[in-house]
Design a protein that fits this description.
Layout (H helix, E strand, L loop, with lengths): L1 H5 L2 H4 L8 H19 L10 H12 L4 H17 L1 H15 L2 H13 L1 E2 L2 E2 L1 H6 L2 H14 L3 E5 L4 E3 L2 E3 L4 E5 H5 L2 H4 L10 H4 L22 H18 E5 L30 E5 L7
Antiparallel strand pairs: 1-2, 3-6, 4-5, 7-8
GO molecular function: heme binding; iron ion binding; oxidoreductase activity, acting on paired donors, with incorporation or reduction of molecular oxygen; steroid hydroxylase activity
Protein name: Cytochrome P450
Cofactor: heme
Length: 284
């Protein structure tokens, strides 16, 4: 799955298989696995997610063949379980926190308030964490590499360009997120209070971390809750700080590889941290 995820952009760019063997081989392996899973009797799939079982039943009722079922399962699994968005945005968010100790302490206080009797109240955390929200939204703005796509239905003139029917139009969100006229002269810099000062920016037409229109990401709320829960658990279990004696240069965004969501860092640029386990808690 990681091989597929790292090179999934090749599929969306329509590269011939001869130039995209890594992603093609990974896709074939996973489709074969998904087909084997779909063939199993329901009694042997008792641990599956409710949604997967429901989808497989519906596919069987309407007579969808096994290979097509496998393709749908692969799409669901990739989009919701292995897509780079959650782990990349978690990386950037935590990196910004550990490189900014005052911000990290403010966020830690918000995270602690989200724990109620040993359980994490994720709804409370998402609704009552302005510092965490600000850092999260700014991380999305700076590192989002997703593109929106639309197909031209009729001759359309934009500027001095005539778009012909059948053409595909790609709209990269990063250009919107780097628009100086919207974000100001410091548009390249991380400002954890940008969205705190002006909550209207969340609805601005130049802020599209989850796409828009018919392609507005349906998993955006779940993704946010997953990231917040992950960060809350990390800071609940450990005292976190940058590891001493390590080159402290902040990681650089990998702008050389096309991205379908949140772009990761240049591969050689890791963030090394010291994690000291805190006092044992009953639950995390």
């Amino acid at each position: 799955m990681l091989d597929f995820n790292d090179s999934a952009w090749m599929v969306f760019f329509g590269l011939p298989e001869i130039f995209s063997s890594k992603v093609a081989n990974a896709r074939k392996t996973m489709q074969k696995t998904m087909a084997q899973f779909a063939r199993l009797p329901e009694s042997e799939r008792i641990g599956q997610a409710w949604g997967i079982g429901t989808i497989l039943k519906a596919q069987e009722i309407v007579g969808i063949d096994i290979e097509s079922r496998a393709c749908m399962l692969l799409l669901i699994y990739w989009a919701h379980s292995a897509n780079s968005n959650e782990y990349n945005i978690s990386f950037w968010l935590i990196a910004h926190l550990v490189y900014n100790v005052p911000l990290m302490e403010r966020v830690r206080n918000e995270l602690e308030a989200g724990w109620k009797d040993g359980d994490l109240d994720i709804k409370y955390l998402c609704a009552n964490s302005p510092n965490l929200d600000g850092a999260f939204q700014e991380s999305l703005r700076l590192n989002g590499g997703a593109m929106m796509s639309r197909q031209v239905k009729q001759p359309t003139m934009i500027g001095d360009k005539l778009l012909q029917p059948g053409s595909n139009v790609l709209m990269p969100s990063r250009q919107l997120h780097m628009n100086e006229s919207v974000w100001g002269q410091d548009y390249k810099n991380f400002d954890a209070e940008r969205f705190v000062r002006d909550k209207g920016l969340l609805k601005h037409s130049s802020y599209r971390p989850f796409g828009g229109g018919i392609s507005y990401c349906p998993g955006r709320v779940m993704a946010k809750e997953q990231v917040y829960a992950f960060v809350a658990i990390i800071f609940r279990r450990f005292d976190v700080k940058l590891a001493p004696g390590i080159n402290g240069k902040f990681p650089i965004l990998d702008e050389s590889t096309p991205s379908l969501g949140i772009t990761g860092p240049v591969k050689s640029m890791d963030v090394f941290m010291d994690l000291t386990e805190r006092e044992k808690l009953d639950q995390y």
